Amino acid sequence: MMDDKKAQLTFKEQAEALHENNLVADAHFDLLDLVLAKRLKGENRVIEKDYLPGLRAGGVDLVISSLFVENEFLPEMGLRRTLDQISALYSEMDESPGLFSLCRNTEEIRQARQRGELAIVLSFEGLDPIGNDLSLLRIFYELGVRGVGLTWSRRNYAADGCLFDEEEEGRKGGLTSFGIRVIQEAVQLGMYLDISHLNDEGVEDLLEFYNGPVMASHSNCRNLAPVMRNLTDDQIRSLASRGGVMGMNVCSAFVGDSDKNMMSEKDLAYHVDHIRNLVGMDHVGFGFDFCDELTDFSQPGAERFCDCIKGHSRCVDLTAELLARGYTEEDAVKVMGGNLLRFLKDTVK
Ligand SMILES: [Zn+2]
Question: What is the Å distance from ligand 1's center to 30 Cα?
Fold first, then answer.
C-alpha cells in the first residue's frame, strides 16, 4: 500500500517535471467563446484572471482556441460573433501585457514560450462565420487564424457535421464544392485542416481531395467509445500515414461508457494505448476540450458530457498515468505537445 502510493507520487512528480521543462499543448479549448461571454457582462482581463492560473498550474504553453458560434447566433450573427471573439483576444492582450500572445506560426510559439507567455493559436470550429464567401477565409488568415475545422456538429456551406449520436435525419453528404474550394484555399494560405466534427463521408472526401497531414483536434477512438465524434481505426491509420495528429478529448461521452462520475485520466489513457498499438507514438496529443464550465448539468443527460479530467491544472495526471503504464519520457513529451508542434511546423505558414 505504502509502496504503491510512493510509486504513484513518483510518476506524478516525474510528470510535473516534464510539464515544467517541455512544451505542453492543448489542441482544442473554447477559450474565446468563454472570454467573450464574460467580457459582454463587463469583465476584463478574463484570460489572466480565470484561465491563466489553471493553465500555468498544468504547465500548459500552447492553447489552440476555437472560434465557435452557438446555434442561437446563426446564421446572421455568425460572422460578427467570431470577429468579436478575435477582437476580445486583442483587447485581452492589451490589458494583460506580457502574459499571452496570439501566435501565427511555430516560430512565434517558440518566442512566446521563451518569453514565458502562453501561446494562443486560433482555429475555426465550423466555417459558419464565412458563410459561402471564400474571400473571407483570407481575411481571417490576416487576423491570425491558422486552423480550419470545417464543421461543428451541424451542416454548413462546406460540409455536413457529425451528430453526437445517431438521430433521425435525411441522407448525409460529404464535402460540397464550396468545401473543396475551402480546403484548397486554406492549404494555399498556410492553414491546417481539422477533421474533428466532420462526418465520415466528409472525412473520406477531405482525405481524397487533400494529400497532406490533417489534425483531429479533439477526437478519441471509436473502437473504445462508439460515438460518431470519435475516429475509426481506419481513419486513425489514414491520419497517421500522412503525418497527422489527434488530440485526446476529456468529454466522458467520447471516453467510454462506464459511470461518468467515476471516470478519470485512466480511462482516457486507454485511448492513447489504442492509438499507440495501431500507429505508434507520433500521432497522439492533447485536445482536451474542457467543457464543464459550458455544460448545464441541470439538463437531462448532461452528465454524459462531463470532463474526465477536471481542468488544465490537472492535465499532468494524464502524463503521470502514461508514465505509470510504462511509456518513456520521450513518448510522454510527444503526447504532451511534441507531436502537435511537429504537425503545425509541417502545415502552418
Ligand atoms: Zn468540439
Answer: 8
Biggest CA pair distance of the chain: 63
How many CB atoms are located within 10 Å of the residue 279 CB?
19
Q: What is the pTM of this model?
A: 0.95
pLDDT reported for residue 3: 56
Distance, in Å, from the CA atom of 316 to the CA atom of 56, rounded to the nearest integer, reads: 11
**Which residue positions in the chain have pLDDT lower than 50?**
1
Cα dihedral angle (343, 23, 85, 189), rounded to 10 degrees?
A: -30
| Centre of ligand 1 from the C-alpha of residue 152, in Å | 6
Q: Could you tell me the three cell numbers for 282?
A: 507520433
Q: Is the dihedral of CA 243, 106, 152, 99 positive or negative?
A: positive
Q: Can you tell me the distance from the alpha carbon of 119 to that of 111, in angstroms, rounded to the nearest whole number?
A: 9
Residue partners of 87: CB distance under 8 A and separation at least 6 = none
Give the Å distance between the CA of 153 and the centre of ligand 1.
8
Distance set, CA 58 to CA 45, 63, 226, 240 (Å): 20, 12, 29, 27
Distance 9 CA to ligand 1 centre (A): 33
Helix axes 233-241, 265-279, angle to 10 degrees: 60
Cell 438521430, residue located: 167
Size (the chain), residues: 349
**pLDDT value, residue 128:** 97
Do the bridges between strand 245-248 and strand 100-102 make them parallel or antiparallel, or are there none, so unpaired? unpaired
- Whole-number Å distance, alpha carbon 334 to ligand 1 midpoint, is 23
Query: Ligand 1 mean position to 154 CA, how many Å?
Result: 11
> 71 C-alpha to center of ligand 1: Å?
13
Write down all domains in the chain, each with its CATH number in brackets: 218-349 (3.20.20.140)
